[in-house]
Amino acid sequence: MRILVTGGAGFIGSALVRHLIRNTAHEVLNLDALTYAGTLSALAPVADDPRYRFVRADVRDPIAVARAIHDFRPQVITHLAAESHVDRSIDGPAAFVETNVVGTFTMLNAACAYWQGLGAAERAAFRFHHISTDEVFGSLGDTGRFTETTPYDPRSPYSASKAASDHLVSAWGHTYGLPVIVTNCSNNYGPYHFPEKMIPLMIVKALGGETLPVYGRGENVRDWLFVEDHVRALRTVFERGEPGRRYNIGGNAERRNIDVVHTLCTILDRLHPRADGRSYAGQIGFVTDRPGHDLRYAIDATRIRDELCWVPEESFESGLEKTVRWYLANQEWWRPILAERAADQRRGLGMSPNQLFSEPR
Ligand code: NAD
User: Fold this and answer.
1) Is-catalytic flag, 134?
2) Mutation test of ligand 1: which of 6, 35, 104, 156 has the most ligand atoms closer than 8 Å to its C-beta?
3) Which residues form ligand 1's pocket by a CB distance below 6 Å?
């Protein structure tokens, strides 16, 4: 198949592209604007493969998007391009509305025009697969899990923009008959994760001897999904999922933030002990909580397990150890990103200091 992946230079998108090139015969076109979050170095392992192509384009640009679709003639569009960081959405929501809402609208319009021009068999086989988040469902108390029928209750500018885009995708399915699928996943972690998100941030700060900044008292609970499990799920959904259906994807790994950081410290103590022999846990510090911080997210992934036979392969502990090993072995990937970010901050272009203390998405 020919798969057009938007946001393929981002964390999940690049994992999907690497997975597809390494494990399938599909051809992949990566359409990405290369914002601060996009790194082509994450695609270096597959960049020379003749089945991989890259086009630098903005999902808000209708002409560039239409041209890419008509030239590549995809059977599947997996739409991941987005502004994805909650803290940034609090300081600057406009980019989230533009990319996540207007960008998704632009992708849908272009995909629909292309799809309407296909023959009947190709129209039936086509999929527009939209990648969304569990944050659209709001915050849980101590019990319960989000299912595919949980009502939407987004509470941050980020989650509101994702919720709006999900509704647009559903509307294009209902109104125009475009074969759409929406997946809502929990917090991803793994290799090539931009070091502003909680797990890589903690690893690089630990190695730098800095404070490990935990929001509030670290009581917030997230359901952690290893990115390589997630991309297997995405492939399963666009190859075998039913158009018009939604699928939740989670890792069955609910953890409080403070427990995540302690587990990380234990792994680092074993793999890369501090020179003074003390535990990295001594670097943990608590910082002012994020405004409107949702308490708990948890995904019920029964549908994708029962209908499509997908289950996560990694436990949280095994996935986290793989992640820590990767960050230790691939410092040439993340150190330049940190250096560039520090230079941006010196020029006044970076995030506010509080945003450095950032958590999940
Ligand atoms: P990311 O921030 O790592 O990557 C986003 C990519 O999109 C980058 O390569 C960036 O250059 C590109 N992009 C941004 N704006 C663009 C534009 N206007 N035009 C074209 N490209 C643009 O994000 P991620 O963590 O890989 O997330 C991918 C998708 O999955 C997003 O839609 C996000 O909402 C969703 N999601 C992520 C998580 C998570 O834990 N990371 C969880 C749930 C859902």
Assistant:
1) yes
2) 35
3) 7, 9-13, 32-35, 37-38, 58-60, 80-84, 99, 103, 131-133, 162, 185, 187-188, 194, 361
Question: How would you write the pLDDT of the chain (361 residues) with one tens digit per residue?
Answer: 999 999 999 999 999 999 999 999 999 999 999 999 999 999 999 999 999 999 999 999 999 999 999 999 999 999 999 999 999 999 999 999 999 999 999 999 999 999 999 999 999 999 999 999 999 999 999 999 999 999 999 999 999 999 999 999 999 999 999 999 999 999 999 999 999 899 999 999 999 999 999 999 999 999 999 999 999 999 999 999 999 999 999 999 999 999 999 999 999 999 999 999 999 999 999 999 888 888 899 999 999 999 999 999 999 999 999 999 999 999 999 999 999 888 877 776 655 433 433 333 3
Neighbouring residues of 93: CB distance < 8 A, sequence distance ≥ 6:
157, 161
Cα 361 to averaged position of ligand 1 atoms, centre (Å) = 10
Q: How far is it, in rounded angstroms, from Cα 276 to Cα 55?
A: 48
Q: Which of 52, 114, 158, 189 is flagged as catalytic?
A: 158
Give me the catalytic one of 27, 135, 254, 359.
135
Whole-number Å distance, alpha carbon 82 to ligand 1 midpoint, is: 4
How far does residue 281's CA lie from ligand 1's centre (Å)? Answer: 31
Domains and CATH numbers, the chain: 2-190+225-252+292-316 (3.40.50.720)
CA distance 5 to 270: 38
Query: Tokens 């931009």 sit at which residue?
Result: 194
User: Residue 214 forms beta bridges with which residues?
Assistant: 286
Determine the distance separating the centroid of ligand 1 and the alpha carbon of 359, expressed in angstroms. Answer: 16
pTM for this model (two decimals) = 0.95
Contacts of 190 (CB under 8 A, 6+ apart): 11, 15, 226, 227, 228, 319, 322, 323, 326
